[in-house]
């Protein structure tokens, strides 16, 4: 019963934290938009049917049924087309003058753009003329659109700062000094088969041939004094299949063993999984827990590394999602490093919270890091310069700023506003792709979840 309650608590904490993050993201757009004089008619968390809403001034605040995002409606995001200036002005049922901008088109994308403009301008009233988003200064548009993802990155920063400043980053590393042997492989098992028991036809490991045992301290390798595990590992790998004379200490006695290392296909390092042919001995060192704590600068440094990893993950995201699709249909196992949706994040939060073998402090640090990681990814992802993401609007406003600035410097007429509506076909394609990927990840998290050791 307690385990189930802890699982539910973990899921609830994660989901509420993500919903709060969504709300703050949208505030990051709404607050500067209003400060710059823009008109915001809607502020909603979620999509789909409205669960609750309240009108406050000119803005409707509310919650919708599907908690997978949110939005703010800023009036006048799209400028009118050049051929749409013959406006149809009508009066609605409340006696308000409404400007309708419509155009008949034959091309599919042209019609989509025209319809989008029409839907946008049906919300515009004559008194809104000076409050339209597209008329804002370019730098104000950038601030408004960058506000949302910047909030997510700031949330991530403060949460990571809490974790790094109190709990710290924890790594298992070889003990300092000459490496002490923790385990000795009795045979050579290919890297792709690691984890299985030795078979009768597996060759004996070089370490076993040399007579090494757990507890031995390796002091030299082919005449080179050994001072640490990283140095020894490089000596072994560079030795390929050559002879190896190993000096080691056992119970205060200096001993020597002679063997030949074996060439094996192994990862380049613990942080680089690129496989290459290297020498193999068959020992692992004793390890220790290393805790590193730091403040804001340390947090920024760590987030810089995360940013690099996140960009790399974004590049491979379509491939990773495709692999999740294969896991759904049973073609292959779900990879441990595959992306997850909010559903998968909630499940992981629940499993960690209910795992009896994890201390309470570790659980709190993990949940904070998980929430921070989601926020950081959302923030970086939204800066991708493609519509309908925030980065697409930022790119459009930046180009407008550059183009107008260049025209001023060259003494040429103002080229006018950049028409983001022309990029709507790209937005529809990107939105469709994001929808498909989102559905695949949610289904994958339900039927083929990422395996956890808890």
From TrEMBL:
Known cofactor(s): Zn(2+)
Composition-biased stretches (Low complexity): 201-210
Keywords: Hydrolase, Membrane, Metalloprotease, Protease, Transmembrane, Transmembrane helix, Zinc
Main location: membrane
Compartments where found: Membrane
Highest rank taxon of the organism: Bacteria
UniProt xrefs under SUPFAM superfamilies: PDZ domain-like
Name of the molecule in the record: Site-2 protease family protein
